[in-house]
């Protein structure tokens, strides 16, 4: 826990854990305020757990959640009431503490000068200088709106899509002004988490400092986006800062909605419940696999869309392979519960996968959607669809690997860039926004109907780079994305079925069959996954090296799909 005092009666903090409440009470804090909505991040404890810990510690708790940059008058009044009526000192928390400190600043702006407020928050480590116009306005000063700092290309998201796009742009135009908005300090190589969960990679191999992976020439704006103003070509941050752009690239990723399954957030990482979809939990997957000697192992997959649609079954194959090699598989009942109706969406790869389903004697349960987990009693509840009939069934387990439901991020859903489903609304070929021609989207958070994989991003980034530069130059779009995605299906340790396909399930192999036949398990494909793809990611994509990813360019005008 990192408590940051701002005033004698108030402090802000990044996300706290239930175990931190006792420490806060011992430090003298009498009231804890949560300014963060539940379900914003994978490792975020529900506010109810903090409230329960507060009651046990004799500390008052208030739940005043709001999304970044969206402080309503009602929220501000409720917070002012907390400061007036609750016992102090008060400790407020959100993801980083920025929202809480911003709320305090606005609540005190009618009695403290902007200089006093900004000095106090800066000493606590929160730069709210962009909030000055609002503070001056609330303090009764006459203010003028300053022009925001602007860039040729502004990129939202420091994940694979954002960084690869920046690298591809700068490869083509080294002197372009490019900035990436990203709040995280670390960057994760998520495709490696499957191998962490199998004991092949250490999780430290899948993380690097954000500042170390950004391409040279990119400005890192260390903050979180609060909203988009495409009519004025601006983006606002949760600390009140604004940035302008000629072209905007949006690659925010998606939301892992753990909270959509009742009881799941509370039991993740214990009671035999794990997931390779989290950096901190992938090692627990391998720990459970090693400990398992008999009993029931469940593996779940939610409704589409999800990122890396093969990952939920990859872990089943690798765990089963371990159990087979150690001689205990005969005593373990393996079941794959899939909310969908097929094992894999591209039929050409299913025969090879079914050979391993039979080899591991795994039961396939289709149209089974996980809706509840009772971790202490080790019981999972599924909604089962049979035609128009729906029912629920409970299954006991000793180990369960869960793939969470996945949706668009809240700040995207609430923006003018989103489609009805909450994804960045783009043309599936050009990746240009359907409404705003100087906005592009790529990666897991956009609306293209392709597999949400890093392999897809590797192909999308050069397309966005070429087309973004065309918009900057006032030219027609010339690059197209064919829907390429790849899913290296790890069917056993040392062998992979390398699924590569585009829109409509069209097979798009990168290699001739005599090199790698993707429809068959292959040691060469395993070598590619384990040894070749990580350096292609770190030293290739992020440095503008477009190995097997050069965009398809047409010199005819490209229409919308």
Automatic annotation (TrEMBL):
<keyword id="KW-0560">Oxidoreductase</keyword>
<dbReference type="GO" id="GO:0070224">
    <property type="term" value="F:sulfide:quinone oxidoreductase activity"/>
</dbReference>
<dbReference type="Pfam" id="PF04273">
    <property type="entry name" value="BLH_phosphatase"/>
</dbReference>
<dbReference type="GO" id="GO:0016787">
    <property type="term" value="F:hydrolase activity"/>
</dbReference>
<dbReference type="InterPro" id="IPR036188">
    <property type="entry name" value="FAD/NAD-bd_sf"/>
</dbReference>
<dbReference type="InterPro" id="IPR015904">
    <property type="entry name" value="Sulphide_quinone_reductase"/>
</dbReference>
<dbReference type="GO" id="GO:0070221">
    <property type="term" value="P:sulfide oxidation, using sulfide:quinone oxidoreductase"/>
</dbReference>
<keyword id="KW-0274">FAD</keyword>
<keyword id="KW-0874">Quinone</keyword>
<dbReference type="InterPro" id="IPR005939">
    <property type="entry name" value="BLH_phosphatase-like"/>
</dbReference>
<dbReference type="Pfam" id="PF07992">
    <property type="entry name" value="Pyr_redox_2"/>
</dbReference>
<dbReference type="InterPro" id="IPR029021">
    <property type="entry name" value="Prot-tyrosine_phosphatase-like"/>
</dbReference>
<feature type="domain" description="FAD/NAD(P)-binding">
    <location>
        <begin position="151"/>
        <end position="264"/>
    </location>
</feature>
<feature type="domain" description="Beta-lactamase hydrolase-like protein phosphatase-like">
    <location>
        <begin position="4"/>
        <end position="109"/>
    </location>
</feature>
<dbReference type="InterPro" id="IPR023753">
    <property type="entry name" value="FAD/NAD-binding_dom"/>
</dbReference>
<protein>
    <submittedName>
        <fullName>Sulfide:quinone oxidoreductase</fullName>
        <ecNumber>1.8.5.-</ecNumber>
    </submittedName>
</protein>
<dbReference type="GO" id="GO:0071949">
    <property type="term" value="F:FAD binding"/>
</dbReference>
<dbReference type="GO" id="GO:0048038">
    <property type="term" value="F:quinone binding"/>
</dbReference>
<keyword id="KW-0809">Transit peptide</keyword>
<keyword id="KW-0285">Flavoprotein</keyword>
